[in-house]
Amino acid sequence: MGEREFDRWRRDWYRWMAFTADRRVLTTIVLLVGFTTFGPVAGALLASAKNPLADSSPTISLVSALLSGTFFLFSIVVTVNTLFVSQQQHPLAQQFGRVQSVVEYRRQLETVVDTEHVPAEPEALLRLLSGSILERAQRLEEDLGAADFELREDLEGYVETLAEETGEMNRGLESAEDTLDVVLATIDYDHDRQIHDLRAIRAAHGDELDDGTAERIEEMLRLLQYAATAREYFKTLYTRRDLADLSRDLVLTAVPTAAIVAAFMHFLTDLPDSNLLVVAVEAVAFAPFVLVATYVLRVTLVNSAQRAAGQFVVGDDGGDIEGIPDGD
Q1: Cα–Cα distance for residue pair 109/136, rounded to 1 Å
Q2: Buried b (16+ CB within 10 A) or exposed e, 124-138
Q3: Is the pLDDT of residue 115 over 90?
Q4: What's the pTM value of the predicted model, to 2 decimals?
Q5: Of 20, 73, 78, 121, which one has the greatest count of Cβ atoms within 10 A?
Q6: What are the angstrom distances between the C-alpha of 175 and each of 131, 149, 291, 327?
Q7: Which residues cross the membrane (predicted)?
Q8: HSE (side-chain half, CA atoms, 13 Å) at 70
């Protein structure tokens, strides 16, 4: 395996672990690895070690703490879901306003892109937005003609970066199957940087732009703002769905876990002296915590991986256009 193939395999493995893997499957894998490590492997390497049930105090303490933590997690989920449901109970006028805002968003977008209907599917909507932005940028570059050298250089760099990010995003959107895939496809589409750089071009070369060029730049800025709004909305939908899935899976995991651990503690004196049995029960007791960790890790990584930062440009990596002043 060459270095390039290894890097690709490592990226795919990280993407699967961090983002695309079913959280229940990933939890099961982690628990199986832990059981294998502390069960058969530890038993073979530490053959002379005494059975954990010979002195059950440490085992009882650990399992009791995990059982208490399971009930605590369960109560947190109930509280979070109660708050979530209460936030959805808005007056009729407010509910109507939310629906009306979506309708108005679509109507305004149809006006800007000059179409009778914009798609309702997230991936199709984002492809329409990104394609319209790139088309206007390329047309703007073609219409400049014999413009100032610095203006052409700045705009060429802008269009090159925009085309690269648009192509990368659209490739991800082509295979998108759910909201998470849509959000992941837009991770490297830095609309905040694009807005910043385009405004910088307009500020630095405003005297050289005719009315048509200035109007096209204004359209691009509006479309970039529409794209930013759509992506943040889809990210919110994904976060809600993931938290709802976490609540469901945690309930389905915590109840059997509590029953198994309680039965283990109740019948402890009647159980055979088996290291594998103790490790298996401990693995079951850890299941709710591992499940929560996998969900929280994915939500955290998805939100932290976004290059855009809410109309502010953070970091120095990528997107900078040579020749554009910093605005100091």
Answers
A1: 15
A2: ebbbbbbebbbebbe
A3: no
A4: 0.80
A5: 73
A6: 17, 40, 27, 39
A7: 25-47, 59-85, 250-269, 275-297
A8: 27
